[in-house]
Request: fold
Amino acid sequence: MVWLDLLLNALAAGILLGGFYAAVSLGIALAFGLLDIVNIAHPVFVMLGSYVAYGMNARFGFDPILTGLLFTPVFYALGVLLYRVYYVSFERKGAESLRGLVFFFGVLFIVEVSLLLAFGVDYRMVEARYIGETFQIGPVGIAFRLLVPCVVGVALTGALYLFLSRTFYGRAIQAVAQDSFALRLMGANPFRVKGIAFGLAIATAALAGALLIMIGPVEPAMNREYIGRVFAVAVLGGMGSIGGTLVAAIIVGVAESLTSTFYGPSWGVAVSFGVLLLALAVRPSGLFGR
Amino acid sequence: MRRNRSRTRAWAVVSLLIGALFASSAWPGAASAADPIKIGFGMALTGGLAANGKAALIAMQLWEADVNKKGGLLGRPVQLVYYDDQTKGATVPGIYTKLLDVDKVHFVVSGYGTNLIAPAMPIVMERKLVFPALFGLANNEKHNYSGYFQIMPAGPRPAIDWTGTYLEVAARQTPKPQTLALVGADAEYPHNALAGIRENAKRLGFKVVYDSTYPPNTVDFTPIVRVIKAQNPDVVFVASYPPDSAGMVLAAHEVGLQPKMFGGGMVGLQFAALLTKLGPKLNGIVNYDFWVPEPTLKFSGIEDFLKRYQAQAEKAGVDPLGHYLPPWAYAYLQVLGQAIEGTKSLDQQKVADYVRTQEHDTIVGKVKFGANGEWATSRVLQVQFQGIETTDIAQFHKAGKRVVVWPEQYKSGKLIYPYSSAMK
Amino acid sequence: MGARSFGAVALAVVVAGLAVTRVLDNQYYYFAGYVVLQYVVLATAWNILGGYTGYVNFGTPAFFALGAYTAVVLIQSLKAPLAIQLVAGAIISGLLGLALGYLTLRLRGVFFSIATLALAVVLQTMFINWEYTGGARGITLVRPASAPLFGNYVQFLFVVMLGLAVLAVATAWWIERSWIGRGLTAIRDNEEAAECMGVPTLRLKLVATTVSGVLMGLAGAPFPYYVTFVEPTSVFDLNYAVNSLAMPMIGGSTTWIGPVIGAVLLGTAQQIATVTISSALNLLLVGLILVAFVILAPEGIVGLVQRLARRSGERTRRSGV
Reply:
């Protein structure tokens, strides 16, 4: 009976965690999966989102989610701007992804240090009424601290999915990933479309950051721990498949949570990367690859 | 036109490069007039330990200012020479040889933390230097070097004495708790602490029912806490770093983990950042500490020191309380300063002998080192969080919230046992 | 550069290094120089796979750490001398490289890069949990006080690393010139086309990944004695991945000299910054240099110089007419 309880709880915890991982990884799925931009700096923008949430929470008592939503347009603009730099410097000259990669490493350092200089190196947390509260469904306990990120993550996934499949620009983004020449023939400007997509990718970081700081304390260098994870999720999800990203995130979350429940937490993260390696070896295009 | 742009760009690169090299090399070491006594060290000012490293640096600079205000040491001013070790052990050998061979410092002291002390040891030993160290856990175990002095009051057998007290407290309760769950992060300090607690568990007759570690980048701690809860241990010992300490405390509340004693080796529950966010959730936790503002620990000079530290901390973005590391960073320099004054000498051997044989009066109390350079007797405190009702920072400046329950000598209140009755 | 003059320069570098140890007693320069040379090896090794073949390896820390931990095991079990540590580190890391080579059968482009990243994480977890090499706690190693012929062990380590750097650069130089290099370039430009034209792509890729692995392992093997304290987070540092990728980018990734220039410049700048700008600005500097370089000088310093030379050549020709 205890065993069954643990299993159910581990599954629940894994799914909750997965929802959060989805939120953090969506930006990568968009930028890397659809646009082929290896934005290794994405987690540092998530970090930026965390610190914005912290700042608004500490100064004005704003709820982190509210801050996340409020700052989405700002992050969107930041993303569009960043894409413009990227386009002018690299893509226009023949899509040199390797140099783009180095560029984003540089961006990573710059943002990280800026956070360091602005907020100091101390750990930061936020306050919200629901942090620390739990409710029970049968034997399964659900913490709001993890439920809220999961719900927001799933909602974000849903919103992006709808946007990409139902709107003109959404479909254009999907098209640009496949054939930007054909898109041009349709009368849409690939540069503009990609700018929108990259803006959206960075915009998700505003919310994801708010979720991150809700779960636990953050410090600027923490972004590096997420680099591997988010790319793992995006690749496992099949590169740019939004639904696939959510499924992959949940698989990673559940794998981590099950390992740490039944085998020992020490191997949790390694298992999710093991899953990735295996998936890559067997089915390189990911679970839901095109 | 095209040619011009390309050339402009080339020049931009060249000047950038020159500028970068210039900016990094043309930083002149502040020349001082009266031939100062230079004390060199590397400190974690960026990277994982920077939060503490920066706080320590503030404390050390306060010591420098204090000494110079009083006329320096041996009539000479004191000057700190320090570099950022970036919390990377690989930078440490370069930094210490630079300090010794290029900057010609008279003394070196360690940076913060075991991993950053270790790479400096061979250099220090080769040259037979006195080496005051800041918060290293068992760094001298393999070397047994006579010039090494470590200021953290872990005691002569650091890993064992550090964690032993937590179980001692538990063992004294009636009925005596029987089972113990251990959990900690996959990192240097937690693994050492866990090794120590396993020995203590054997000694004090506890049965270990859960013993596991988790990777430092773990996000969700509820699965771990749930497994611990399923084992229903009497005592839970956690050896964690700040982000996971917060994660553990939150998860324990969410899952409803209520052993008879909870805590032990959680780093971070000494800092304002976590104290003011976890607030009432801390009630009942028993955790190690080195100094808390309880009446039993009012050593002379500490309050004045903290006031001046706190004035600077906010601005620097480091721990605004400064109870954990800063007093010790001040104290290890005090020890060195007193030894220089006491021997009237800059001779490494003489100073080392003085440090080893004398008792030193510092802002953290009287310090006496044992044979291996650790404190002759352990002064690790076990404190219990009691009566915290808000997340306000002011309460942590005052006594009564972090009550010392061990050792007897510094006890400032009674342990509320079991954990559940202290949680309210 | 012809074989003879390359050999002469290489020899001169080694002799100069040896001569320095006779004259200069200041240990700092050996410690600092060691780090720069270590980056010459890592950057050159990375470039054989990344620059010549076009497979971006994020897993430099994995190979470096494997070399270092092989040395730790040998020190722990046999007190083996450095030479044996080097050979063993090279072999073990080379085997990992070989395995990685087979991975390229299935994985191209960024997928390959992500796989190398995952590889590093899995390997790090293994070493965290392996108590024999200190586990997460790390392990203290007592460095021999002196080495035969050198007196000071640190000087010895410096010369060893200098030798390894020359070896690495010579290997890259030789590969670039041989049919292997041409084959690798063909793979970089278009793998399918190369395959069709009868280039033995798999064999060539295996050579590239193995050689790259061997060299990275060599760079890692002396590290335990350099730092005397080895723990997983420091040997699996992301910085090794970033630097070994950024240095060839800054220097120029198509020739053997590019990584050397990049490693010497960036490595030295970082060393100097460490002991001067004691703050976060150090990291900011690296970020700004990276961004500025990839935008302003996409072909690296080598490309920049070539372009300038070409330009001035054109001008001379023009003015000559």
